[in-house]
Amino acid sequence: MIFKTNFPGADFWLIRKGSAKKLGTPVKEFSKEYIGVKVDEAVFVVGYAYYLFMYLHSLGAYRGFAKGTTNLQHITLEDCKLIFRKHFVKLGAGEQHRLKTRGGGY
Question: How many angstroms from the chain centroid is the CA of residue 99?
Answer without folding.
Answer: 16
